[in-house]
Amino acid sequence: MIESTPTTPASKPAPQPNEFSAQAGEPQPSLTAELLDFLVNNKAWWLTPIIVVLSLVGLLVVAGSSVAAPFIYALF
To answer: pTM of the predicted model, to two decimals?
Structure first.
């Protein structure tokens, strides 16, 4: 027969930190770092031209509503 000793809540060992809680305590990477990590790990290099073009269009929209607008319109 196996004898068991009763345990009390005070005698339970503290839980060991697991990988999930260790990663939760790390600082979060930036959006650019996460996007680059996604592209590398998933081999989704076909998304790179789309992201670059969308970024350039967004930059053009922001610059078009600033002081640089007359210079941008002269280019077209």
So the answer is: 0.53
